[in-house]
UniProtKB/TrEMBL annotation:
Gene3D superfamilies: Peptidase S8/S53 domain. Residues 77-400 form the Peptidase S53 domain. Residues 1-30 form the signal peptide. PANTHER family: PROTEASE S8 TRIPEPTIDYL PEPTIDASE I CLN2, TRIPEPTIDYL-PEPTIDASE 1. Keywords: Hydrolase, Protease, Signal. GO terms for biological process: proteolysis. One of its GO terms (molecular function) is serine-type endopeptidase activity. CDD domains: Peptidases_S53. This is Putative protease.
Length: 400
């Protein structure tokens, strides 16, 4: 199995940059049909050996990053107030006493310092090792951290910033796998699940569809919500999102709107979706017409389009990009949904069927597509369940 982290990275400064003409540079270009935009990009990580993860972050090469933000200015990309508004979240009042865990590969040596910059910028309470809010461990539970990796460091910063944005009262546990092998990442999930106080675990990586018979023990943790990114390459099932035991998280394009909600969403063209060839369908999904005989992906979703991405701070330079950046990909949506589970505080008594029995507490996403499929709902948003966005996006915490 070849695994991929689910971050897409847009490196930007603080000025208004929408008018800058884009020139296609470097080895890759990411095009998003929903937004009609094309970005010059380069991959953050090299191709990995079989059985190892390679982060799929795409860094914007046509805009130079900056380390600081001008006085009285805010970074580009959505911050905590926007995400809390879009998803009607009780972020200021809920989450205390709960821990959201992040599992990634390799070490981000500046993770805690960068988190402090993010939280200070947006007026969030400090979350540090000293005050007990933040904890970083290796996959064995100690502090023998693995080798530094700048690409995975960007992923880590994205993940912990999204927990901060959505559940600022939650504690954060970062578990760093010693390598990007599936075994080490899985062992890190088990380590997170064995840590006191953890109510949700986010996994912003994935690979080709695989069997729970081989890997399911890493993700089967009753009483803890385990989320997994559905992918950034459009149609095609991805593991662990295709596991019977996780909440598979798809992606949307999130835009402000002149409506009662104040926001609108469509399916993001890169969001992963599909039917597992191996794993058992969720019991409560049977009445939603997924068209899958086995596990259908995704279950729920949140913002993932890089064109409507989120602000992130990371100072571990990679390929020359450092500072305030904008990220997209389902690496954004997975920690968002894990943190919504943290806000709800129900994980001890529910499982991943719960959103299906409470779909009325989600914003249904009914337009947009991630490609063309033999069964329309696997690729195209519609009323009710569809592959790219699942049942929809959070409307408060009632579905979690």
């Amino acid at each position: 199995m070849q695994l991929r982290s689910r971050a897409r990275l847009l490196s930007i400064g603080v000025a208004a940059l929408a008018a800058i003409p884009l020139t296609i540079l470097g080895p890759a270009a990411a095009s998003d049909a929903a937004s009609g935009s094309t970005h010059a990009t380069a991959r953050s990580c090299a191709t990995a050996a079989p059985g190892h993860a390679a982060c799929a972050a795409l860094v914007r090469t046509d805009i130079v990053a900056t380390k600081t933000v001008a006085p009285n200015a805010t970074p580009s990309g959505y911050g905590p107030s926007s995400l809390q508004s879009a998803y009607k979240l009780p972020s200021s009042t809920a989450g205390s006493g709960r821990t959201v865990a992040i599992v990634d590969a390799y070490d981000d040596p500046t993770a805690e310092a960068d988190l402090a910059v993010y939280r200070s910028q947006f007026g969030l309470p400090a979350c540090t090792t000293a005050n007990g809010c933040f904890k970083k461990i290796d996959q064995n539970g100690g502090t023998s951290y693995p080798a530094k990796d700048g690409g995975w460091g960007q992923e880590i910063s994205l993940d912990i910033d999204m927990v901060s944005a959505v559940c600022p009262n939650c504690h954060i546990l970062l578990v760093e796998a010693k390598s990007a092998s599936f075994a080490d990442l899985g062992a890190s999930v088990n380590r997170a699940a064995a840590t006191s106080g953890v109510v949700a675990i986010s996994n912003s990586y994935g690979g080709s569809d695989a069997s729970d018979a081989s890997y399911g023990s890493y993700y089967n943790h009753p009483g803890i919500a385990v989320t997994a990114s559905s992918g950034d390459s459009g149609y095609g099932a991805s593991y662990p999102a295709s596991s019977h035991y996780v909440t598979a998280v798809g992606g949307t394009t999130l835009s402000t709107a002149s409506n009662t909600r104040g926001w609108t969403e469509t399916a993001w063209s890169g969001a992963g979706s599909g039917c597992s060839a191996y794993n058992t369908a969720l019991t409560s999904a049977s009445s939603f017409g997924t068209g899958c005989s086995k596990r259908a992906e995704a279950d729920v979703s949140a913002v993932a389009n890089p064109s409507t991405g989120v602000a992130v701070y990371d100072s571990t330079a990679y390929q020359g990009y450092v500072g305030w950046m904008v990220f997209g990909g389902t690496s954004v949506s997975s920690p968002i949904i894990a943190s919504v589970y943290g806000l709800a505080g129900n994980t001890a008594s529910i499982d991943n069927n719960y959103p299906y029995t409470h779909s009325g507490s989600l914003f249904d996403v009914t337009s947009g597509s991630n490609g063309s499929c033999s069964t329309s709902q696997w690729c195209t948003a519609r009323v009710g369940w569809d592959g790219p966005t699942g049942l929809g996006t959070p409307n408060g915490v009632g579905a979690f």
